[in-house]
Amino acid sequence: MSSSPAATNDDVELAKELNAGYRRILSQLDRIIVGQRQVIEELLITVFARGHCLLVGVPGLAKTLLVSTLADTLNLTFKRIQFTPDLMPTDITGTEVIQDDPTTGQRRFKFLPGPIFANVILADEINRTPPKTQSALLEAMQERQISVGGEDYKLDEPFFVLATQNPIEQEGTYPLPEAQLDRFMFLVKVDYPSDSEESEIVRRTTGAVPSTVQAVVEREQITAFQDLVRRVPAADAMIEYAKKLVRCTRPIEANPPEFIAKWVTWGAGPRASMNLILTAKARAILRGQSHVAWEDIRAVAHPVLRHRIILNFAAQAEKMSTDDIIDQLLAHVGEGRGQK
């Protein structure tokens, strides 16, 4: 059985268009970004699954460059917000100011939109600002609107928050609360480049004028692609498998896996199950497949789950990471064993 209706001819053609657009985007990004192919794929999965992404990596790995270049290839408006300890919520959302009406002479409030009013928002070093300001993103990320002065203001679609975080600096930072972490569909780790990739990076950045990219996908196409992703079929067995993976992360469940009971304090919630299926659908169609397969779910398990599993002191003492737990989880819940 499938959770979605059979694909129509229009959907088949749109899927071919999405796959072709994906390849064009990769071709444009290759002009600027060296390597990082898995990071790029996970970022695009988030975009077409209509989610938000948290990029974690040390400085100098081109996280900001990647996000801004991606916005250029998608022909979307882009704003960067540098998060600092003195940043205020109104610096993100905008504020109301009093202006004189030239026709009546009366004073009235006028809303001045903040940088949140763009299609792609880069929240740079999001953990450097206090929770009050971090939470200003919550409504925008979840409801795709903001409230100022009792008025609701809708954000333009498509809308993505792509945040960065430096994992090595702890002093003067404010760890994101679990509620806000859960708003991010993916947590993507950005690693150091390989030896050959680093050589190419040095050649490109110290030589001639850098290449530029062209917009290869339009805004209306992105919205259509996002709708198409939700229509990708996912069999009941796939849904049961995703649900089983998530439920096995919870030590409060009956008979949890031994390693979960030993090392995990809190497991992932239902939003993780939803995101496993939704991002697996996006991955499948970006790779030219017509339905979700086991491998699609397993491929997105790490970025979906790594920020939703809270380890206890015993795990930290034994230097266990959430990725280690997810590796064991994927081995424990084998393909075809999703249903109890």
Tally of alpha and pi helices: 15
Identify the CATH homologous superfamily of the largest domain: P-loop containing nucleotide triphosphate hydrolases
Number of strands: 11
Main beta sheet: strand number and arrangement? 5 strands, parallel
Rg is 21 Å
- What's the helix-strand series? HHEHEHEEEHHEEEHEHHHHEHHEHH
Q: What do you see in this structure?
A:
Helix content is 44%, strand content 15%. It has 340 residues and is α/β, with parallel strands linked by helices. It has a five-stranded parallel beta sheet with strand order 2-5-8-1-9. A two-stranded antiparallel ribbon has the order 3-4. Strands 6-7 form a two-stranded antiparallel sheet. Strand 6 (145-148) and strand 7 form a beta hairpin. Helix 10 crosses helix 12 (270-286) and helix 13 (294-305) packs antiparallel against helix 15.
In short:
This protein is an alpha/beta fold and 340 residues long. The protein is built from 15 helices and eleven strands.
Helices and strands, with pairings:
Elements: H1 9-29, H2 37-48, E1 53-56, H3 63-73, E2 78-82, H4 90-93, E3 94-100, E4 107-113, E5 120-124, H5 131-134, H6 136-143, E6 145-148, E7 151-154, E8 160-165, H7 178-181, E9 186-189, H8 195-206, H9 219-230, H10 236-247, H11 258-263, E10 264-266, H12 270-286, H13 294-305, E11 310-311, H14 313-317, H15 322-332
Helix pairs in contact: 1-9, 2-12, 10-12, 12-13, 13-15
